[in-house]
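Hello again,

I reread your note about wanting to compare the complex against the isolated chains. To keep things tidy I'm splitting this into two emails, and this first one only covers the full assembly. Below are the input lines as submitted, including protein chains and any nucleic acid or small-molecule components. They are followed by the predicted structure of everything together. The single-chain runs will come separately.
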Amino acid sequence: MQALYAQLLVGLINGSFYALLSLGLAVIFGMLNIINFAHGALYMMGAFVAYFLLNLGGINYWWALLLAPIIVGIFGMILERTMLQWLTGLDHLYGLLLTFGIALIVQGVFQNYFGSSGLPYAIPDQLRGGMNLGFMFLPIYRGWVVVFSLVVCLATWFLIEKTQLGAYLRAATENPTLVRAFGINVPRMITLTYGLGVGLAALAGVLSAPINQVRPLMGADLIIVVFAVVVIGGMGSIMGSIITGFALGVIEGLTKYFYPEASNTVVFVLMVLVLLVKPTGLTGRAA
Amino acid sequence: MTTLTDDTLRASPRAMRDEMIVFAVMALLLAAVPFTGVYPFFVMQALCFALLACAFNLLIGYGGLLSFGHAMFLGTAGYCSAHALKVWGLPPELGILVGVAAAFVLSIVTGYISIRRQGIYFSMITLALSQLLYFIYLQAPFTHGEDGIQGIPQGHMFGVLDLSKPTVLYYVVLAGFLAGFLLIFRIINSPFGEVLKSIRENEQRAISLGYRTDQYKFLAFVLSGTLAGFAGSLKVFVAQNASLTDVHWSMSGEVVLMTLVGGLGTIFGPVVGAFAIIAMQQYLAGFGQWVTVIQGSIFVICVLTFRRGVIGEIAHYFRRSL
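Full-complex prediction:
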C-alpha cells in the first residue's frame, strides 16, 4: 500500500504541473488564438532561472518562486511584442509554427551550454524531511508542491472568473473590437495575458526543479503530454483545465503502480478514447 | 483571415504545361547526379525526405490540415520494412510492400481518430498520437529500443537489381521518388484534389454544396500517411537501419520545416525545402546543438517574413502555380 500512496503522490505532483501548464495554454489560447508550443521551453527556463538565481546570485528558493515567473514572464512579453503580435489575422497554424521555432531556439541554446544531463537543485531547508501520516510517509516538499499549485490554480481561476480584470479579459476573448471601443487597451491586455500564462509555466518549472533536476529538455516531452491533456479537457473552461490536469496526473500515478509499462502512454490512450466517445473534449466547446 | 497558400494563382492548362516542364527538368537533373560526382548518399537521403515532405504537403497545402506527427508513418514503415527484410528475409519489393501496408493501416486508424477535430487540435492530436507510438516502439522488443534495427540487408530487387551497388540503389530510390511525386501531382490535379482545395478555402461552403468533407479529409490523410510510409521504406535501403529518431517529434518538426521553407501548398516547394534542410544539416553537422537553434530561427524567420517559402515566392513573382 505504501508504494501505491507514493505513486499517487507522484501522480498528484505531475498533475499539478499538467494543471499549471494547461491552464496557461488555455488562457493564452483564449486571448491570442495561439497554441503556445514554447510553453515547455519556458517551463524549463523557469527552472534554469531559479538555478541561476541560487548559484550565481545566492538568491534562495522563496525569492525564485516570485522572481523566476516575473523574469520569464517579461521574456515572454518581449516575445509577444516582437514576434507573436505580427500573427494577428493569420491562420492559427502559423502561431503553432512560430512558437515551435522559439521552443527549438531556447532548448538548443540551453543544450549547448548545459548538455542533456540534469543539474541538481536542493530542496529549501524549511521544506526538507517528511512526516508520517500513519498510512504513508509524506516528504514535505512534495506535499508543498501539490498544495501550492492548487492554490495558484484556484487563484488564477478567481482572477479570471471573479474579478473586474478577469471580466475585461473574458470580454476581450469574445469580442476584442468591441472591448477596444470601450476604451480598454486590448493589445496591452494580450501582452499581459501572454506574460501571465508564461509566468505560470515558469512557476511550475521552479516547483519541479528540486524534484526532477534542471534539464534543458525537461519541458520538451512534457509539453506533448500537456497537449494531450488539453485535447482531453478542452480549452473552453479554466476550472476544466485544472481538474483535468490533476485527474490525469492521478490516473498516470495509478497506472505506474498497477501497470508500469503503460505509464508513459496512458494519457495518450485516454486522449484517443475521449476523442472516440466525445470528440469535443470533456468540457470543451467545438473548435 | 488569410489562408495558408497563395490564392492569387489560378490553375490553367498553361500552368499545367509549365509544371510538367519543371518536372522534366527536375527528373533529368536528378538522373544526372551519379555522373556529377555529388555524394549519392546525400541525394538519396534528401529524396526520401523530399517524398515525405511532398506527402505531408498534400495534407497541409491542399487539405489545410497541419499534421505534427508525420514521423510516425516514416518510422512505422521503416521498422516494418526493416523487420521484414532482416528477420523474415523477404526480398526488397515485398519489404517495401510490408512497410507501406503498415503505414496504410496506421493512417486509417490515426486518421479516424484525428480527423474528428479541426485546426490547432488536429495538430496536437497527431503530435500526441506519434508520441504514443514513440513510447510503444521504445518498449516493443522487435524494434530493439534505443539500438534500433541495424545492418539491414539490401538484397536484389525483383531478383535482378543489386541494391548494394550505390548507382543501382540510387536509380531505384529516384524511381520511387518520381513515382510518388507523380502520384501526388495527379491527386492534386484530380477532381478529388479540387474538392480538397475547396474544403481548405471554405469548408462550410463545401459542406453546403453537398460534399462530405470529413470523408475527403480522411482520404487525404490516408493517402498522405501511406505515401509518407513509402518514403520511410525507401529510406531503410539508404540508411540500412531503422531507429527511434525516425519516430521522434523532432523528425515531425523537420518535415514541417522543409515544407515551410520550400512553400506550403506548392508542388515543388517540399522538394527544394528537403534538399535545403538536409544540406544544411550535412554542412553544419559539426556545430552540435546549434543546428537546432538554426532550425528554430528558420522557423521564426519563415513565419514572420517569408510565409510563401522559396518556391511560393517565385510562383508569386511569375504569377504561376509551381
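For quick reference: Chain A has one domain: 1-97+114-277.

B.
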